[in-house]
């Protein structure tokens, strides 16, 4: 049976563990026969990691998407033909290649040549050194697609959580919280949970920003001034949402609740409960995009790059989710 759709895995930072977990994942988990996996990155980088990891097989590589082989796994190599993989090192070359891989994958998704993309981890500093001046891959992809309202949804099993603000210093979080931002995130999450995840009427819940939900204004007034009015506005739009609730108590009762997604106010408030529940198994899904994009829940892990110690579980789950969502389309 020939493949009826394709999904990409971008190389990420070739000096980190991205290529390692990618190669391990595609050997550990086989995509259904109707799905072809396209690895986007320099062939020489993948060959380096195959030798490093003792992978005793190769994948056909082409320089033009139109000439892809029909093999289940292929490499699209539109990169400089020479370069150096330097495990554990931050370089502008690895950042430039990581950014270009994202450029290529997004364009192919926009043209409906790919049905989904899975992004291996990158270094934010490396991206910047390579000429891609964004806080992260999510923001870069959204910018290329011209999308202003998007949400990072992290999930492990049935637990889904999204931070209202993503890569911001903590001292800037409070000033970034607004009614408009909260409503936009809730609309985005509600829409994708319905259209992509097949949940007919999603139940959403929102955390407070301050300890004890502001303690009636004593510990902060963002709840009363911004979050409560935003939830009222979202409810008028037909979104089933509750809150704001003190984050510690809310996440402490996860197993007794039936919420489809939690909206937290900042990065660590969202990711701490996620990683306590499924560290190394969670998936990052970007809601609000016209394309399907997932990624593993970890970074480049320079400290273990090249040691063959990286676990591919999160990449397997990111690949599995991308394929499941792509198959529904």
Radius of gyration from CA coordinates: 20 Å
In terms of per-residue confidence, which ranges show pLDDT below 50 for 5 or more consecutive residues? none
How much helicity do the residues have?
25-40%
Order of helices and strands: EHEHEEHEHHEEHHEHEHEHEEH
* CATH top level class name of the largest domain: Alpha Beta
Q: CATH superfamily of the largest domain, please?
A: Isopropylmalate Dehydrogenase
Alpha-carbon distance between the termini? 19 Å
Secondary structure: number of strands: 12
Q: Give a quick account of the main beta sheet: strands, pairing sense, barrel closure.
A: 12 strands, mixed
CATH architecture of the largest domain: 3-Layer(aba) Sandwich
Q: How many separate structural domains?
A: 2
* Shape, principal axes of CA atoms: globular
Q: Beta fraction of the residues?
A: 15-25%
Number of helices: 11
Question: Could you tell me the mean pLDDT?
Answer: 95
Q: Which structural category do the helix and sheet elements fall into?
A: alpha/beta
Q: What fold name goes in the CATH topology slot of the largest domain?
A: Isopropylmalate Dehydrogenase
